Structure formats: C-alpha cells, structure tokens
Amino acid sequence: MTRSLSRADNLIHQFDTVLRTLVPHAATPSRVSPATSAVHDEPMSAEERRHAAGLMRINHTGEVCAQALYQGQGLTAKLPEVRGQMEQASQEEIDHLAWCDERLQELHDRPSLLNPLFYAASFGLGAAAGAVGDQVSLGFVAATEEQVGHHLEEHLVKLPASDHRSRAVLRQMAIDEAHHAQLALEAGGSRFPAPVKFGMKLMSKVMTASVYRV
C-alpha cells in the first residue's frame, strides 16, 4: 500500500525541488543528455564559446522558471489529474535543467546569478494561475511552452555552427516542450488571446536580455 503524503512530507518535497532547481549541479536527470550522442564539437573561438554559454544560460534559466511555474501550479491546481500532469512535466523539465547545467560546465561557464529572482516570480505566476482555475492554469502552460519553443528555434539558429552538443540538447528540449503544450491543451487548457501572449513575450525578452551575461 502507498502512504498518502502528510503536509510535512509535501513541504519537504517542495523544499527539495527548490534546492535541486537553484543549487548548481544538484538536478539529477532521468534521461541521458542528448549531447552524449552528438558529433564532437569542432574548435570554437573564445567569443563563440562565450556566445554559446550565454544562450545556454538563457535556456537554463528558462528551465528554472519552468520548474517554479509547475511547482506553483501543482500547489494550487484543483483536480488531482492536473496536479499529476504538472508533476510529470516537471520531471521532464528537470532533465532539461540538468542538461543545460552540464553543457554550461562543458563550456566553462555558470548559471545565471538572477535565477532565484526569476524562480520566485515564476512560482508566484504559477500559483496565481492555478488558483484561478485549472483551465487557465493549463492554458498558461501551453502559452509558456509555445514561447519556449520559439526561443529554442531561435537559439538553434544563433548557436555557433561548430557547437553540435548544445544543438543536440536544444533539439530534444524543443520536442519535449511541444509535447507539453499539446498535452496541456488536450487536458482542457484555454488558448490565450494574442494580447496576453504579447505581454508574456515582452516579459520573456526582459529575462533573456538580462540573463545572457549575468
């Protein structure tokens, strides 16, 4: 028999998720990084390496935000099946987080110093969306994953041509994010209107501009 989790158990689990998200190298992926099967990188100049690291730092912070979003939504979601879906998607986002972290280490760089700030903001947005209702919460997931997909496509073009390992990671992430968006809509998520998506895009631009170097 499985034991139902107490409030204390849930708080411990939530705290563990925060630590695994914000502490560098703490996230443990359930899948091997796609970079391991990629063609070996060709030599990159110092400027190309810094540029690749900046892009991967943005993607890493995006996964920090995704973890916070799913955690906040799971905390306030009304239906058990919706909470379960949030937890499943969150586990796949942990993979992305760990893959980006591994790639940053390979590029001799670090995650963004602004991650705690973006985590807190995303957690608040997720909790608020979940409190409004599961339909809005799932719609927010779909709209967010759509934004992430656009960023990943842009980064695949912007990466140095010789950075095959980063490109392999982003390709798999793009597949997973599209799947998350589809599941959220199929589960009853509402499609957000264009003005709301535009506002989300502006917020995303603030994040990417600040995290690229900091």
TrEMBL record:
A Pfam family: COQ7
This protein's pathway: Cofactor biosynthesis; ubiquinone biosynthesis
Keyword Transit peptide: no
Annotated EC: 1.14.99.60
Residues annotated to bind Fe cation 2: 93, 145, 177, 180
Top-level lineage group: Bacteria
Cofactor(s) the protein needs: Fe cation
Catalytic activity: a 5-methoxy-2-methyl-3-(all-trans-polyprenyl)benzene-1,4-diol + AH2 + O2 = a 3-demethylubiquinol + A + H2O
Keywords tagged on the record: Cell membrane, Iron, Membrane, Metal-binding, Monooxygenase, Oxidoreductase, Ubiquinone biosynthesis
Subcellular location: Cell membrane
Cofactor binding notes: Binds 2 iron ions per subunit.
Membrane topology: Peripheral membrane protein
SUPFAM superfamilies tied to this protein: Ferritin-like
CDD domains: DMQH
GO MF: monooxygenase activity
Keyword field contains Repressor: no
Broad class of where this protein is predominantly found: membrane
Residue sites binding Fe cation 1 per the record: 63, 93, 96, 177
Functional note: Catalyzes the hydroxylation of 2-nonaprenyl-3-methyl-6-methoxy-1,4-benzoquinol during ubiquinone biosynthesis.
Annotated family: Belongs to the COQ7 family.
Descriptive protein name: 3-demethoxyubiquinol 3-hydroxylase
Organism: Halomonas pelophila
Name of the encoding gene: coq7
